[in-house]
Write a structure and sequence with these properties.
The structure is a homodimer of 343-residue chains.
Chain A lengths: L3 E2 L2 E4 L13 E4 L3 E2 L10 E9 L4 H4 L19 E11 L9 E7 L3 E4 L6 E3 L16 H14 L6 E4 L5 H12 L3 E6 L2 H9 L4 E4 L5 H8 L2 E6 L3 H9 L1 E9 L3 H4 L11 H5 L3 E4 L6 H17 L7 E5 L4 H10 L5 E5 L4
Parallel strand pairs in A: 10-11, 10-13, 11-12, 13-14, 14-15, 16-17
Antiparallel strand pairs in A: 1-4, 2-3, 5-6, 5-8, 5-17, 6-7, 7-9
Helix pairs in contact in A: 2-3, 2-9
GO molecular function, one term (chains A, B): oxidoreductase activity, acting on the CH-CH group of donors, NAD or NADP as acceptor
InterPro entries (chains A, B): ADH-like_C (IPR013149), ADH_N_2 (IPR041694), ER (IPR020843), GroES-like_sf (IPR011032), MDR_fam (IPR045010), NAD(P)-bd_dom_sf (IPR036291)
Pfam families (chains A, B): ADH_N_2 (PF16884), ADH_zinc_N (PF00107)
């Protein structure tokens, strides 16, 4: 077999505000790979099945001079994200051809992995879609599950407000909160998302583009838990409508990602007056503590239909640039994934 | 015995920025009291020995239309604060003449207490100054002690940054942190305060008016615990210089009290990127949980000289108006108290 083109998604140009769907990320087929003879040097050759596209990627699409908590992607190189791939060849005794691996991989149709640190083999005896392992059964699902276990301190009868409640993290949070007997207020940006949030159990679901978050919280609050994906004005409203001892779980500040920075928090005084707890959540902190419980619990619940979940599926790595913009603008309905190959 | 004038500190006028030492609070002697015949209606008549003057009072000196977490003081009435008083007469079977009581009392030379809810009898077998029970062995000391127990999660070798480190809360925090083996960075606003912070164990003590907090934290940080009395720009710097998993204990935002409101928090993104915990501390939440431990532990330590402590003493209720301004401007050196009578 001779070398074939290996399509990759390259970080081409740092965006100023929203990424440009044509110039920020570009699909490139100039590199080739020989699936039979490319040297593995003790590693494995995999074929990508699915990639996740997430809002946090925006923060890494910057020039390396701009310091931040995460590493900037290298210009001219493929970006990386969560993925499931199938093993085509292996020189690693622990990994066999035909097995599936989950990890943080370069957006390429094929790639060779030498260092398997952090890579997990996925058996999928539950038989759910491979794409789910990058969403509800992957990083976003874990974010909800770990954060809920570690920080929510939920008590039956309490009220939670979940932002981006139709997204992969938010929809999981809604379902975990309902399992624990909470009243759930949830927001999203379209009527179909509102309907989905109601379908999965939200007691009060609303479209923040057409209804006033302030009015909703005034009517249905105060809130004991605030699950924050957005920051900015909504965080300030949540501070006003927080109950005493409320827990704020901070997962994202998407309002600031494309507007030159995080918006200042105006109503911080409520932290003192109401004895609030604000907790930054990073999923990676809990992998060791809760990882096994998650994989033992969640894929089975998905297979049995106990946890509901939506995907926003695009096909082919060519769609990455546009899909990232969709995700950042909230135009996706469900977890954004790119299917690269079915098997 | 005939009625005598009963000096009281009246809330006369709501201030716009800093209180005016002459018009915000006024000392008033127009009311009289007969110490032998004034009816008690089942209560107790007490003579005030000492009152605490604290920055938080500023928040209650407002017109009642301005909503806040605490109740506004009533215009034309005495303000209230923590006090130790001696019992002159009693119709309550649980309280005897000559006993001492601690509570949140009206700033008056004499007053009659009917409801003893929240009032604590103080035996003081340790023989420390009564004034200490409104400071290091009172609300400020408890704020430090309770907050440390509940939220610090201190580990030996970690670094803490304490603001207003020469104050009654801050100086206790410094000493608790040193007992637990932490490295202590502490700030205050004069060279004598800096010297005092060094004397009680601070590893790095600095005058924030003459040295750059940013430079100090850059050099001696990152910080694992931030004990915040000030908010504003210093809070934003602490967010920048926080270590991963740092705990922020929020006790006061004094920067905003006299400048028309709390300053917005600019660097909130660090909460996510460093998995920070921000905790609003209100001393009253822990009275039941830690109150007995505190009174069993701290007065004895003070008597034995194990915990050091400074007071800024004024005599007579006439000094209340000016003393509050001093406290808000940080012109006091030590815990501000008003001695009304020695015994």
């Amino acid at each position: 077999m001779s070398p074939i083109p290996n399509g990759r998604v390259i970080f081409n140009e740092a965006p100023v505000a929203y990424p440009d769907p044509r110039t920020t990320l570009v699909y490139d087929t100039s590199e080739t790979i020989d699936l039979e003879t490319s040297p593995l040097n003790g590693g494995i050759l995999v074929k990508s099945l699915v990639f996740s596209i997430d809002p946090y990627l925006r923060g890494r699409l910057r020039s390396p001079e701009t310091k931040s908590y995460n590493e900037a992607f290298a210009l001219g190189q493929p970006i990386r994200n969560f993925s499931v791939a199938v093993v085509l060849r292996s020189e690693n005794a622990n990994v066999k051809v035909g097995e599936h691996v989950y990890g943080h991989f370069p957006l390429a149709e094929y790639h060779i992995l030498k260092d398997l640190t952090g890579v997990r083999k996925i058996e999928n005896k539950e038989g759910i879609a491979w794409s789910h392992y990058t969403g509800i059964a992957g990083m976003p699902g874990k974010t909800a599950y770990y954060g809920w276990k570690a920080y929510a301190k939920a008590k039956k009868g309490e009220t939670i407000f979940v932002t981006t409640g139709a997204g992969p993290v938010g929809s999981m949070v809604i379902q975990l909160a309902k399992l624990d007997g909470l009243k759930v207020i949830a927001s999203a940006g379209s009527s179909e998302k509102v309907q989905f949030m109601k379908d999965i159990g939200a007691d009060v679901a609303f479209n923040y583009k057409t209804e006033s978050t302030d009015e909703i919280l005034k009517k249905h609050g105060p809130i004991d838990i605030y699950w924050d994906h957005v920051g900015g004005e909504v965080l300030d409203l949540a501070l006003i409508h927080a109950a005493k001892f409320a827990r704020f779980i901070e997962v994202g500040l998407i309002t600031g990602y494309n507007s030159g920075g995080i918006q200042p928090v105006k109503n911080f005084g409520n932290v003192l007056s109401k004895s609030l707890t604000i907790q930054g959540l990073y999923v990676g902190n809990f992998e060791e503590q809760y990882g096994e419980a998650f994989y033992n619990d969640i894929p089975g619940r998905i297979a049995r239909g106990e946890i509901k979940y939506l995907e926003y599926v695009k096909h082919g790595l060519q769609s990455a640039g546009q899909l990232l913009v969709d995700v950042l603008k909230g135009d996706n309905f469900g977890k954004a994934v790119i299917i690269v190959a079915d098997k």
